[in-house]
Structure formats: structure tokens, C-alpha cells
Specification:
single chain, alpha/beta, globular
Length: 288
């Protein structure tokens, strides 16, 4: 088996966006590179320390080394040495292939070419992931004591980030944070929903109790529970936009973003500003 290639330093430029969410209720988140991080714990699972990376920061990746397992479909997989036994590695190949096929079908977006997947060892057992979408590499870091399906859940989300770059091109690097993380969470679907049938139902209890957060709120400085809530709300908002206005209009909106939450041209595409759409989204959720 050949050694896994190391990510070049040129691919590790300033982040376009910061942290992203991993499952709230899961049992089963100067270069042009965009990076998306998934936190290293889930709220209702054994706690870890959230490590959000603010815009403009430069991550220091764990050194990539391991064995290359070959290409399956559109994925080229490598796993850190000693992380998985042969049977677990074989199962992972199947699970990741299924996850990619699922998000491709759900989002109606397809990869332009194969992408590299690296499953690394996190010595502290902090589960987290990252996507370098313009160099076509996604990574997840885990440890032998964590269920492997949690790493698959993260990678399903990371796959959607790559599909967005393939669909929208470089405009993906400046996408409105609400839309970028919302569609990645929504696109991961069953890998993030637990027993809920859709994100509308997932967030409805929060809205009924008046516990929702403003959609335009930045994740910077928030506790992990609030970050998690935001990302699920954003997924529900994306669900609302697509179901209400159609995918063509959503695609037109996605490429108008300027990075920060609420920065896309909502008025130009939908004829309503972000606040008006947020109010309409709340009403839609509560009527569900």
C-alpha cells in the first residue's frame, strides 16, 4: 500500500468560515481554500472541548500519515495507521460510499471528480472534521473508542460542502454562512436527523417554546449548545427556502453571499429581506 500524500501548506490558508455543528440528538459538526470544521463532540454524547476557528485563523492540521486503501467510486480513502482493524476499514469503505450516494441524491449535486478522504487519529478522542473544498480533500479525526458511524455522520456533511463547491464554483468560498452551513446540514439528512422526519420537525419544539436563536446570529463566542441550535435552524431555513421558492431560486441566491450570516441578496432573489424571510420561516415551522 502506498503512503497517503501530505496536504501542502499552500492549501492551508485562512479560513473562509468557522466551525460547524455535529449532531444535537444523534446516536447513530491567504489562500483561496475554504475550510469547514465540525466540532469534536456531540451535545448529548460524551463531552469534549469545542474548538471553533474564527475567520482569518490558520489551522494547524494533524500530520497526515497512514495507509491508502484505494479508490471506491468517487472516493479515495486513507486511514491512519492502527486506527481501524481490517474489518472496520472494509465497513467504512461501504459506509462512506453509501453516504456520498445519499447526499448526491438528496441535494441533486454530483462531484465533478474524485475526492480524497482521510480518517485520522485524534489522540484526545475529540471528534472533528474539515473540508478543503478547492483541493478536494475532506478529513475527519476520531479514535478507536468512538463509534465509527459518528465519523461517517461528519463526513456526510463535509461531502455536501464539496458538492457545493462543485456546483457553484468559487462563489461557494464567499457563501452566506446561513446558506453554506444550512445546506451542508440539510444535505446530510438522515445522518443528522436522528428520529425526526425533517429539519422543520426537528426545530419546531424550540420555536414553540420561544427558545430559538436569531438566524443572523454569528456563532463566534457562542457556547456549543447554541452553535448546535443555530446550525439546525439554518438547515431548517434552507429547507423552507427550497420547498417554498424552489431550487433554481436557491441556487441563484447561494452565489450572491458575502460570507457573513444574512449577506446574500434575499431581496433581489425573493423580493423579501432576510428579516421578513426569517419571520415567514418561523410561521412555516410552527404550522408544520
Amino acid at each position: 500500500m502506498s503512503s497517503w500524500p501530505r496536504i501542502p501548506q499552500s492549501a492551508l490558508g485562512p479560513l473562509a468560515l468557522g466551525s460547524l455543528l455535529i449532531l444535537l440528538a444523534a446516536l447513530f459538526a491567504g489562500g483561496r481554500t475554504t475550510t469547514r470544521f465540525a466540532p469534536n463532540s456531540a451535545v448529548q454524547l460524551p463531552a469534549g472541548v469545542e474548538r471553533p476557528i474564527p475567520p482569518g485563523a490558520t489551522p494547524t492540521p494533524w500530520p497526515l500519515s497512514g495507509t491508502y486503501t484505494g479508490q471506491m467510486g468517487m472516493l479515495r480513502l486513507a486511514v491512519a495507521e492502527g486506527l481501524l482493524d481490517p474489518q472496520a476499514q472494509e465497513n467504512l469503505v461501504t459506509d462512506l460510499d453509501q453516504a456520498l450516494a445519499y447526499v448526491v441524491q438528496r441535494t441533486a449535486m454530483a462531484p465533478h471528480s474524485p475526492l480524497d478522504v482521510y480518517v485520522g487519529l485524534e489522540p484526545g478522542c475529540g471528534l472533528h472534521g474539515i473540508a478543503y473544498t478547492d483541493v478536494r480533500r475532506v478529513q475527519v479525526f476520531t479514535c478507536p473508542t468512538l463509534p465509527l458511524n459518528r465519523a461517517v455522520n461528519i463526513l456526510a456533511h463535509e461531502f455536501v460542502h464539496q458538492l457545493c463547491h462543485d456546483r457553484y464554483g468559487d462563489r461557494h468560498l464567499q457563501a452566506d454562512l446561513v446558506l453554506a452551513e444550512g445546506i451542508a446540514t440539510w444535505g446530510a439528512g438522515r445522518y443528522w436527523l436522528g428520529d425526526a422526519p425533517h429539519f422543520r420537525a426537528f426545530v419546531a419544539p424550540w420555536l414553540r417554546r420561544g427558545e430559538e436563536l436569531p438566524l443572523g446570529l454569528s456563532y463566534v463566542g457562542l457556547p456549543i449548545s447554541d452553535m448546535n441550535k443555530l446550525y439546525y435552524q439554518w438547515a431548517s431555513f434552507v429547507e423552507y427556502l427550497i420547498e417554498t421558492y424552489g431550487r433554481e431560486a436557491f441556487d441563484a441566491l447561494y452565489v450572491t453571499g458575502q460570507g457573513r450570516p444574512g449577506s446574500a441578496d434575499y431581496v433581489g432573489i425573493y423580493g423579501r429581506n432576510f428579516d421578513e424571510l426569517e419571520a415567514a420561516w418561523k410561521a412555516w415551522v410552527l404550522q408544520g
